[in-house]
Amino acid sequence: MDFSTPAAVMGNVRWAIENAVHAVVGTTGIGASELAEIGRWLSARKNASNVIVAPNFAIGAVLVQRFAAEAARLFPAAEIIELHHEGKLDAPSGTSVATAERMAKSRTTEWEGPDSETVEGVRGGSAFGTRIHSVRLPGLVAHQEVLFGGDGQTLSIRHDTTDRESFMPGVVLAIKAVMDRPGLTIGLEPLLGLEGAGDSR
Q: Which helix (H) or strand (E) holds 37?
């Protein structure tokens, strides 16, 4: 299991692969280039070990991503607000970036909102065409809200983690599954039987 830091995670995963150790990775900050590198390491070792990388182990967070991808097909505009404890090192969160990526793959039209700001940075940053706003405060654990807007209506999809124990069912699921998932598996969706979701390489 790796829940370390963005600076340490790739070295840890490489060591596991080089030593034929299965790995479940929940460290945030792993993007497309890192996933491709993990895939190359696995191929070089002839998939002697298996790796599951998930941006979030809370089942509700996985469902928010799935529902948001569905809504992105039908709503022209969306923004993401993610809130975490003050000790979280990355902003935006890996979960919010993964949500934005899935939404981009589902979109049928592009939308670009206003970008004028009287205070720099208040409009958030853009990932895969969706603006993300990051909040870091004591008292928070992990929260994400995806706001959609259309003619005469809005839709809000929100997940709140109030205790870290919410991650444990997903962690246990991944630990039990990793030995039977050859190569690289991305996300919990394939482990939950959510058709057409997630990725396995």
A: helix 32-44
Residue 46 falls in the annotated catalytic set: no
Q: Which residues pair with 60 in a beta bridge?
A: none
Catalytic residue among 46, 85, 88, 159, which? 88
Give me the long-range contacts of 150-154 (CB less than 8 A, separation at least 24). Answer: 150/74, 150/75, 150/76, 150/77
Please tell me the CATH code under which domain 59-162 is placed: 3.30.360.10
Q: Please count the residues of the chain.
A: 201
- Residue 84 annotated as catalytic: yes
Q: Specify the pTM.
A: 0.82
Q: List CB contacts of 197: < 8 A, sequence separation 6 or more.
A: 66, 187, 189, 190
pLDDT digits (tens, 9 = 90+) for 31-57: 889 999 999 999 999 989 999 999 889
What's the CATH number of domain 6-53+165-200, 3.40.50.150, 3.30.420.40, 3.40.50.720, 3.40.1000.70?
3.40.50.720
**Cα(34)–Cα(118) distance, rounded to whole angstroms?**
36
- Among 22, 84, 133, 159, the one annotated catalytic: 84
Cβ-proximal residues to 119 (8 Å cutoff; 6+ apart), any chain = none
